[in-house]
Structures are given as structure tokens and as C-alpha cells.
Amino acid sequence: MITDFVPHLAVPLRVAAFLVASILVHGVIFRSPSSHLRSLKRGASPKHAVYVTHSFIRRTSTTVKNNVPPISVQVSLEALCIDSKNYVLNDLVHTYSQLGPDVMDLSVISYGNAKLNETTHQVVCQHGKAECDANVYQQCAIDRFPSPQRYLPFLQCLFETLPMGRSDTPFDPSMFSHCARRSALDWSALQTCHDDPDESWRLQYQSAQRTPSYHDHFPLVGVSGAFVSETNSLLQAVCDAYMKEGGQHPVCISPSATQQNL
User: Fold this and answer.
1) Neighbouring residues of 4: CB distance < 8 A, sequence distance ≥ 6
2) DSSP 3-state of 253
3) Nearest to 207 by CA among 131, 153, 96
4) Who's near 3: CB < 8 A, 6+ residues apart?
5) pLDDT in tens, 156-180
6) In the chain, is it the N or the C terminus that has fewer CB atoms within a 10 Å radius of its CB?
7) Each residue of 183-210: pLDDT tens digit?
8) Residue 143 is inside which H or E element, if any?
9) Which residues, in sequence order, are CB contacts of 150 under 8 Å at separation 6+?
10) What is d(CA 210, CA 46) in angstroms, rounded to the nearest whole number?
11) Is residue 144 within 8 Å of 183, Cβ to Cβ?
């Protein structure tokens, strides 16, 4: 009789009910990385976007077991440049989240069209004093936490939080401390670096020396030492360079497959 089987179904039914409840409560946590990225592209709130991106970048991509070294990728930008913002949020974060350090040897230079005076140690930035100040915060994050898996969520948060465009009034430090907390960086280390005139000058000067002299706009992107237009897909460019060297990655199976991940 059916009633004879009811006691045997009690435990499985309780387990099934628990699993359904867990999925309903924690559904966001269990979403796939691709669904996280789609939510970012649709304009998720800064708080949600930074959390998702940071947790995703920390487990970046599938581990690649190749003997091919990662491809050098250099991105030069400005802290208050709208084009830099769009590139970081729409292309750089997505590409690094897909490929990670096994495929990308990423370096970011925050300086742009700034001009420095080596005699007076003064720096003039394209978008005003606020940009110079924000550049230093970014430079400190990159210097103190040199792994892109650490500093890239901080840069993403700043581009989502700070208003772009010219301003000669530096932003309140609370805006930067907010992003430090969101990206799990030591705020005291960043603040100490930023507030030290000698250290901030060193980083500004270093960034100026590393910024390509041939630039005429920002962001400026280089892949394997060659200029790549910021209007082209960074994911495709890195995959092409990596596969050309004999590398393999699930995202880089073929040009058509790569396009589907954009």
C-alpha cells in the first residue's frame, strides 16, 4: 500500500525541502559568473557590483595548465576620465574575471595626461586637482597591493562612485575609504601612502615614466607590447595573443566562442 512507503519518504522529502529553501534564500550566491557579469552590464548598484566582482575575481577563471606564460597587458588611464571609466567597467573587469592571472599579466597605470614639474614636485592633471588626488589613491592601491586580484575591485568601485569630469576640489576621503572596505583593502595603508608627500610624489613620478610617451588619448591599451584600440574587445585581443603562443583556455577555444562570452 502507498501508506507503507510514507515513512521511507519522510527523510528525502525533508532534504528536498531544505534544498529548495536554500536555493530560494541564497539564489544570488549560487548564480553562475556569467549571470553576475550580465547583471553588471545591466547596471547593478555599485554596492552589489563591487561585492560580486571582488568575490569573482578572487577565484578568477579556470586554472590553466600550460607552459605558455601569461600575455602582457598594460592599461593606462585617468581617475576622472569617462572613457577610462567605461573601459574599466565594461571591458577590463570582465576580461580579467574571465581569464585571470594565468592568461593575463596585467598592469594598470593611473596617470594619463598629467604634467609634472620635477623642480617643484607639482603635478597638474587634465581633470583638475581632484583627479591628481584620485590618481594617487589608485597608485597607492596598485603599489601596496600589486596583484590585480586585489586592486582591480578598488579601481572598479572608484569608477562607479566618483563623478567623472573636471574638478579642482578633491573628494572627501570617505569615498575612498568606502571603496577600500568594499574591496577588502587596508584603508590605513592607503591613507598613509596618500598623505605622505614624498611617497605620493614617488608614485606620481613613477607612473609618469611608465606612461607611454606616444599617447594621444586615454585609456591606452597594450597587449604583448602592441597598441590595441579601446573600442576593440580586450578579451578577443588577449585570447588571440595567447592562442598564437600555443596557449589554451576554455574561454579562448575559438574566435566565435570568445565573442559569445563578450
Assistant:
1) none
2) coil
3) 131
4) none
5) 999 999 999 999 999 999 999 999 9
6) N
7) 999 999 999 999 999 999 999 999 999 9
8) helix 129-144
9) 141, 183, 184, 185
10) 30
11) no
Position 1 scores a pLDDT of: 45
- Do 138 and 191 meet the contact criterion of CB atoms below 8 Å apart? no
Q: How open is the CA angle 193-148-113, to the nearest 5 degrees?
A: 65
Does the model's pTM come out above 0.85?
no
Quickly tell me which residue has 579642482 as its cell: 168
Question: 92 CB contacts (<8 Å, ≥6 apart)?
Answer: 75, 152, 234
pLDDT value at position 43?
Answer: 36
* Lateral strand order in the sheet of 226-228: 104-110, 71-77, 220-223, 226-228
Neighbours of 113 (CB within 10 A): 16
Maximum separation of any 2 CA atoms in the chain, in Å = 95
Would you say 76 and 116 are in contact if contact means Cβ atoms under 8 Å apart?
no
CA distances in angstroms from 55 to 97, 139, 169, 175, 184, listed in the order given: 10, 22, 33, 21, 10
**CB-count burial class (<10 Å; 0-12, 13-18, 19+) for 134:** buried
Q: Name residues whose C-beta falls within 8 Å of residue 87's C-beta, 6 or more positions apart in sequence.
A: 75, 77, 219, 221, 230
- Mind listing the pLDDT tens digit for each residue in 46-75? 433 433 444 444 445 555 567 899 999 999
